[in-house]
Design a protein that fits this description.
This protein is mainly alpha-helical and about 100 residues long. The chain contains three helices and two strands. The chain is flat, with a radius of gyration of 27 Å.
Amino acid sequence: MSLRPEEVKKIAHLARLNVSESDLTYYTPQLSSILDFVAHMNEIDTTQVEPLAHPLDLPQRLRPDDISEPNQRELFQSIAPEVKVGLYLVPKVIEEA
């Protein structure tokens, strides 16, 4: 796939990147070659390949579910600006229309 400089400029705008005119001539062939590579990868037959979440078939190592910190809820709520029924109260930030 061959991109034109106008298309690269549009992609840069969508990505909120400021690309100068001189850089467009540099990036256009690079982005085109990336898209060519992706198109080539899409042509590969992967019907016999099983999807993996991880390249190694290992179980997830889990840590013990033990309490390691003391309960400091009362301390933290005592220094909060406003608390009601165990909940922190915050100012309203969404205005109704």
